[in-house]
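Q: How do we represent a protein-ligand complex in a form that can be generated token by token?
A: Start from the inputs.
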Amino acid sequence: MKIGFIGAGKVGTAMGVYLKEKNYNILGYYSRTYESAQNAAALTNSNASIKLESLVKNSDLLFITTNDDEISNICNRLLDEGLINEEKIVVHMSGADSSKILEKLKKKGCYIYSLHPLQSFADIKSAVKDLQHTVFSLEGDKEKIKVIEDILKTTGNKYFIIQTEQKALYHVAACVVSNYLVSLLDYGLSIFETIGIDKDKGYKALYPLIQGSIENIKNLGTSKALTGPIARGDVNTIEKHIEALKNINPQWLDMYKTLGFATIEVAQKEKLKNLEKIDKLKKIMKGCNYE
Ligand SMILES: NC(=O)c1ccc[n+]([C@@H]2O[C@H](COP(=O)([O-])OP(=O)(O)OC[C@H]3O[C@@H](n4cnc5c(N)ncnc54)[C@H](OP(=O)(O)O)[C@@H]3O)[C@@H](O)[C@H]2O)c1
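Then emit the structure tokens for the protein with NAP bound:
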């Protein structure tokens, strides 16, 4: 099976290197710039195509690894320029879109998939290393899905299959966990800054706490991992927090209350069963967007 890549950026190049290491036959790359295609081809001992046509014609499996906005353009180009006329497996790797974005290719006999690595890749070298421990989600046509599953089994990557219509919600979850975690840390570090602890120092000081929480979640699950004043039902402590935040930044107070409400709900599952305390805590968080 010959594998071609359209889009020689971080993910396309790293995926090619990764698959090559596992003895897959990488045919080559086409990219917006020939330079990127050449770089990826050199790393995978494959060919850089100046023309899209030759890469598409000779590939059995095509990865579209352009930036998300370009995927449908590539799809249109493949059709408008008559580049696809026979059965191919076409896969994109975006988390945001489902395989539906490739739907038009089905009329040419293609099988379409989205294969998403649950990982954040900053550069090619680290991406190749990270890929080994990455879990993938996969969705698309039933007929040839085994081909992609076999690749993941060969590379030793864990994966799960989702329904095409679930892709948007799947991506919401991934973004909340990855991106909102960053915003959450920025929120805490900004509060530190108001008392003279800069973000760098603050991050280093908080890192063991963050790491401990992640470890606890890993070992116990979210409900049992929760610690702190809400889990203990320390109503007075929460009142002091609200008082301290009131004078600093109203937006931070809103955020505190919204996350506080969400935290009460987590606490109720395992740690906090005292209904009177739950009621008092919910009243304190009143007016938040989460209610
Ligand atoms: N990076 C991540 O953390 C990550 C994680 C999971 C999934 N993904 C997904 O992986 C895909 C690729 O992301 P990336 O991070 O690798 O992006 P990237 O590094 O920006 O690479 C995108 C590549 O697409 C090429 N390209 C753009 N328009 C093109 C066109 N019309 N024809 C051919 N090539 C074109 C660019 O080529 P030139 O270099 O030649 O200009 C660029 O190298 C996206 O769907 C993204 O959502 C990324």
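The first strand starts at residue 2 and ends at 6. The two ends are 54 Å apart (CA to CA).
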